[in-house]
Specification:
The protein is α+β, with helices and mostly antiparallel strands and 427 residues long. The chain has helices at residues 17-32, 45-49, 60-71, 86-94, 125-133, 158-161, 178-186, 192-199, 206-213, 296-305, 307-333, 336-354, 368-375, 379-391, 406-413; strands at residues 2-6, 9-13, 51-53, 56-58, 75-78, 81-84, 111-114, 121-124, 139-141, 146-149, 218-222, 227-229, 237-243, 246-251, 257-263, 282-285, 289-295, 362-364, 395-396, 401-403. It starts with a strand and ends in a 14-residue tail after the last helix.
């Protein structure tokens, strides 16, 4: 083990990949004997999501705020700890915090704190205190050190635009979420991003587009990990993904999981249930998601009445099969580095197709454990490959994975986008 000191606390980690491999080898027998991982933190889901820990924001909300500040370039993590960038200093001074007096008093300007329930870093120090002071929460005491916080001002697209800094001017670098861009540009309501995706490969008249926009639906906002569909279910609705990411997976008899598909905004998650009575897979939210639940009977009736829409839905289903074939080749015949690089290229192109704005870099919202389940590798092997790609300047890994050099990833994986059929609109 190796130790890292953080003020009065010491945090311990594994000393080397070899140690990790040894522990990983024991995970299978441990699971079979019923030994499961302990879930740290409070049991109350509201407390796990947002709470006050002494004088800063904790829980899922605190971790997301910290990640947001890192993404915006306001904070950077180095060997000496957490520091403010030039842009971050401007932002902090706008909160009324005197950066020049940062050495006065015991409390540092900003520091990392390991979150009790999330086991990830969140922001503490005087900046963390100032940000909590500027949020509008209703508090209910739980202990002398902790309070339950009220509803956060979450909006659509919270997976990419999570902003608890209500009332604080903060430049949004990512701009509007794709679902909002397409809804504004097309004027067809929340289903605009779904219609836009169909138009990328099929011709639809104005009347066809309006008919799709008029489908009955119910909007739902779901948290990370929410089960959307279970194997064996008899589905009556088709979820259409408007924002966030989901994944489809299968579970073996011994409990092993294989992710068989990733879904991006604009994707319909379960067209097949209109014609196959029983679901043969599970679907779960990879990030916070916004979905439109559309009755399958309404989709089926629309396809029967409008041939162009029926063709568009068929093309979309065939495309999913094409991606599935490429995934089989990727897992079966490419080495680990090429396998990972190929997946990242695919995700970049699929997101670029529906982004509504040019992508300079792209953040991949997937963990190393999920990459392992997707690519048929161990988490330790995934970590090695990420480090290798990072060494070649293709990605930046850490708490978030960013694609920096698409051309290098394409070279490593010998990537061809022919299976994505990006230019399939008939003449």
């Amino acid at each position: 083990m190796v130790a890292r000191k953080q003020r009065r606390h010491r945090y311990f980690g594994l000393a080397s990949p070899r140690v990790a491999e040894t522990i990983e080898a024991l995970m299978g027998p441990a699971a079979e004997s019923g030994e499961l991982r302990t879930r740290t933190g409070p049991r109350d889901e509201a407390l796990r999501f947002a709470r006050r820990c002494y004088n800063h924001l904790a829980g899922t909300a605190g971790v997301r705020m910290y990640d947001s500040l890192i993404r915006r370039g306001y904070l950077s993590v180095g060997e000496s700890g957490l520091s403010l960038s030039t842009e971050g200093r401007v932002f902090v001074e706008g909160l009324g915090i005197d950066v020049q007096q940062s050495s006065v008093g015991r409390a540092p300007l900003c520091r990392e704190c390991l979150d009790w329930s999330e086991r990830k870093a969140r922001l503490a120090g005087r900046v963390g205190r100032a940000l909590l002071d500027r949020t509008n929460f209703a508090e209910r005491p739980v202990s002398s050190a902790m309070s339950r916080l009220g509803t956060l001002p979450l909006g659509r697209g919270c997976s990419e635009r999570f902003d608890i800094l209500k009332g604080i001017p903060m430049a949004e670098q990512t701009g509007p979420a794709p679902m909002d861009r397409h809804e504004t540009a097309m004027g067809l309501g929340p289903l605009s991003i779904f219609i836009r995706k169909l138009l990328n490969r099929s011709r639809l008249s104005t009347l066809d587009q309006q008919a799709l926009a008029n489908l009955p639906y119910k909007i739902q906002n779901l948290d990370v990990g929410t089960q959307i569909l279970r194997e064996g279910d008899r589905a009556l609705v088709c979820p259409i993904l408007l924002d966030g990411f989901t994944y489809r997976y299968k579970v073996a008899a011994d409990g092993g999981r294989q992710i068989v598909a990733l879904k991006v905004p604009g994707d319909a998650l379960d067209f097949q249930s209109a014609y196959l009575h029983t679901a043969d897979h599970d679907i779960r939210a990879l990030t916070p998601v916004v979905i439109a639940m559309v009755p399958l009977r309404a989709i089926e009736s629309l396809a029967e009445d409008r041939p162009a829409i029926a063709r568009a839905l068929l093309v979309d289903t065939i495309l999913e099969g094409s991606i599935g074939r490429e995934w089989l080749l990727n897992i079966g015949r490419r080495n680990a580095e090429a396998r990972l690089a190929h997946l990242l290229c695919e995700l970049y192109y699929r997101i670029d197709e529906i982004a509504g704005a040019p992508l300079d870099t792209y953040e991949v919202p997937i963990t190393q454990e999920q990459l392992a389940d997707l690519l048929g590798l161990t988490p330790v092997h995934i970590n090695r490959m990420l480090k290798r790609l990072e060494g070649k300047g293709a990605i930046r890994s850490g708490r978030r994975l960013h694609i920096l050099d698409l051309a290098e990833l394409e070279r490593i994986s010998d990537f061809s986008d022919i299976y994505l059929h990006r230019n399939n609109v008939p003449a």
